[in-house]
Amino acid sequence: MADVLQNYINGNWVSADSSGLLDVENPSTVEILARVPLSTAAEANRAVEAAAAAFPGWSSTPASRRVQPIFKLAALLRENEEEIARTLTGEMGKSLPDARAELKRAIENCEVACGMPVLQQGDKLIGAAAGIDGEVIRLPIGVFAMIAPFNFPAMAPFWFLPYAMATGNTFVLKPSEQVPLTMRLVTRYIDQVGLPPGVFNLLNGDKVAAGALVDSPKVDGISLVGSSATCRVVAEQCARKGKRCLAMGGAKNHLVAMPDARIDKVIANMITSCYGCAGQRCMASSAIVAVGDDTYKKVCETFVEQSKGVLVANPLDPDYADRDMLMGPVISAKAKNFILNMIDEGIREGATLALDGRNIVVPGGKDGHFIGPTVFTDVRAGMKIHQTEIFGPVVVILKAATLDDAIRIVNDHQYGNGASIYTQDGYLARKFKLQVNCGMIGINIGIPAPVAHLPFGGMKASFFADIKTRGKAIVRFYTEEKIITERYWGED
Ligand code: NAD
Q1: Is 102 in the pocket of ligand 1 (CB under 6 A)?
Q2: Most buried residue among 290, 407, 465, 482 by CB atoms closer than 10 A?
Q3: What is the pTM of this model?
């Protein structure tokens, strides 16, 4: 009988007051790994109450003391990297090297957050007026909640969790109901680092539990990483309630290849970007724009040829587990169906199915949710397969006459998370980075995901917020700035 997950509330593991259980599945083998409770609104409110009760003590703890548990957590995550990475791969399906890299990014976020005693410092203007000084102080706000997606079970929560706690706020995390095991394991380590009860709480569930967090008058701010449709709903609710909201949504990231691009290096780079994590990264590329007839021909031929060589396997199969470029399954039967329907749609729209991954056979993965690398050529901007975030290993290749046309294709798209250009020409690269309306730009980099010391976030329908996450930016999300104007009179 698969084990039933518990919530972690006020420093204790508690059985959920739940309206049902959902199977957590290994997407490579469809083995049931555990059952996750769908916590009710009442349970969500208990987690919020615990966080609210912990806030006065935690917010008045000096910043240098608040970061001590986060130092310890980073060390514990590093020591237990392999166990966490294997849990992550088991429930999510990405390759083990990808899972280890994800965990490294989570740890990196702890390291950045440990700099909070410096990052959270205020500003002082001596002599704002005659005998009057001005001061800006950054204070913690209260309870923050985070609602996480399935594709980065460890890293996405860590874009927020260590920063929220280091700035003096308390926190409720709702992991994705599809991949709750990684953060359960991480929470076992959080439990050992000496945080006061209630500072961190883990609430399992689906949109009912998430909705209760958004609804609660005691939650001061929400961060959400998920599809743009979910972001839009949550951002609107937060706006109506006057809550802070940082919501990061879907993507369709373009790779633009110029005629002078080093095709020998570029294609391998595109392959990792498009097929890593089976195309289920928010920074994965799924649209290639080749500029000029010759570039288009070369890119189509070489990309399709190299796509055929991508290894598709169960990422925990010991024969392949440490391969850097291995493509596992997509997350669920539902996701696989959606992707297959999108492939049918592309054929109906008249694009050329240059490589068909629909009938791939994976040894030992007969029932797993595998789809092989799939490539459409002759794709026109505006086709559904170009407009939609397919979130699978399906790549569309378009042709543009000039760089201006390529930039127009990227800018006309609803999403604006990331985009990259391949060129050796600094002038063209500069034009691209200034004119493309995407939050994260790569120059000869297929996955322009910045390190944790820098901010992260897109534009247009990929981003529903004013402030980006991580780095120095996130400090403003998690603190209230007060501006003080002061003067003292001397003895007359
Ligand atoms: P999803 O929107 O289905 O779910 C995300 C989370 O929102 C889950 O925890 C879910 O329980 C919760 N949720 C669903 N409906 C809700 C509602 N009405 N109210 C409140 N919460 C709700 O997304 P997913 O399939 O888990 O993740 C994949 C999506 O996330 C893709 O679109 C991907 O591009 C995006 N993503 C974006 C980034 C980024 O940085 N922009 C990073 C990772 C993933």
Answers
A1: no
A2: 290
A3: 0.98
Q: Across the chain, what does the average pLDDT equal? A: 97
CA distance 23 to 3: 10
Same domain, 34 and 83: yes
- The answer to whether residue 19 scores a pLDDT higher than 80 is no
Domain match, 178 and 301 both: no
Residue 354 and residue 341: Cα distance in Å, rounded? Answer: 17
Determine the distance separating the centroid of ligand 1 and the alpha carbon of 462, expressed in angstroms: 11
**CA angle at residue 361 from 369 to 102, to 5 degrees?**
45
Residues 181 and 205 in one domain: yes
Ligand 1 atom showing the smallest separation from residue 226 Cα: 30
Report the amino acid identity of residue 34: A
Nearest to 276, CA basis, from 451, 449, 78? 449
Asked if residue 417 has its Cβ within 6 Å of ligand 1, the reply is yes
* 177 and 317 inside one domain: no
Q: Is the pLDDT of residue 257 over 80?
A: yes
State how many domains the chain has: 2
Place 336 in a pLDDT band, splitting at 50, 70 and 90. Answer: very high
Domain presence at residue 456: no
Q: How far is the CA of 329 from the centre of ligand 1 (A)?
A: 19
Residues 6+ apart with CB under 8 A from 466: none
Q: Write down the pLDDT at residue 141.
A: 98
Is the model's pLDDT at 394 over the cut of 90? yes
Residues 319 and 363 occupy one common structural domain: yes
What's the token pair of residue 258? Answer: 């110029």
Q: What is the pLDDT of residues 76-104, one digit of tens each?
A: 999 999 999 999 999 999 999 999 999 99
Answer for the pair 410, 386: CB distance below 8 angstroms, yes or no: no
Catalytic residues: 282
Say if residues 484 and 471 touch (Cβ distance below 8 Å): no
pLDDT of 18? 78
DSSP H stretches of helix in 374-424 = 384-387, 403-412
Q: Is residue 350 part of a domain?
A: yes
Distance 335 CA to ligand 1 centre (A): 13
Q: What is the CATH classification number for the domain harbouring 239?
A: 3.40.605.10
> What's the pLDDT score for residue 471?
87
Q: Is there a domain that residue 450 lies in?
A: no
Q: What is the pLDDT, as a whole number, of residue 31?
A: 97
User: Residue 325 has what pLDDT?
Assistant: 87
Among protein residues, the one whose CA lies closest to atom 12 of ligand 1: 207
Q: How far is the CA of 282 from the centre of ligand 1 (A)?
A: 11
Q: Mean pLDDT across the stretch 257-281? A: 96
The stretch 32-45 carries a mean pLDDT of: 97
Among the atoms of ligand 1, which is closest to the Cα of residue 282? Answer: 34
Is the same domain home to 113 and 43? Answer: yes
In this structure, the answer to whether residues 242 and 337 fall within a common structural domain is no
State whether the beta carbon of 331 lies less than 6 angstroms from ligand 1: no
Task: Note down the domain range covering 114.
Answer: 7-249+462-484
- Pocket residue to mutate for ligand 1, from 146, 150, 172, 227, most atoms within 8 A of Cβ: 227
Are 336 and 356 members of one domain?
A: yes
The DSSP line for 147-183 is E--SS-TTHHHHTTHHHHHHTT-EEEEE--TTS-HHH
- Ligand 1 atom showing the smallest separation from residue 152 Cα: 43
Mutate to test the pocket of ligand 1, among 225, 336, 390, 464 (most ligand atoms within 8 A of CB): 225
- The CA 230 to ligand 1 mean position distance, Å, reads 6
For ligand 1, whether the C-beta of 287 sits within 6 Å is no
